[in-house]
Amino acid sequence: MVLTAHVPTASASRYLQQLCKHWGHKFETEFDAQQGVIAFPMGPIRMVAGAEALTVTIEPQEGADVERFKQVVADHLDRFAFREAPLTFDWQ
Asked: Under 8 Å CB-to-CB from 90, ≥6 apart: which residues?
């Protein structure tokens, strides 16, 4: 299963980097200003920063609580985006 959300924001690169740095203390991360991957316990989180949106892709492992996974990602990004939160996640 792969779920992707296009999150409208002009600060996509900043939020991508903040989330990777935040979780980098607990999980393996790899990122630059345009893309990032977090080896999250429920499954990998991949992000790509665009000019007007952050594309977030999660790949829940078998047995993972998918709704919880989506909520954890959204809640953390909303914390970094407090000036424009809540962000809109259109999971597909």
From this structure: 5, 6, 7
Peptide bond connecting 86 to the previous residue in cis, omega within 30 degrees of 0: yes
**pTM above 0.85?**
yes
Structure tokens at 2: 């792969």
Strand-pairing partners, residue 7, are 54
* Pairing relationship of beta strands 53-58 and 3-8 according to DSSP bridges: antiparallel
The pLDDT tens digits along the chain (92 residues) read: 999 999 999 999 999 999 999 999 999 999 999 999 999 999 999 999 999 999 999 999 999 999 999 999 999 999 999 999 899 999 99
For residues 6 and 64, give the distance between their C-alpha atoms in angstroms, rounded to a whole number.
Answer: 22
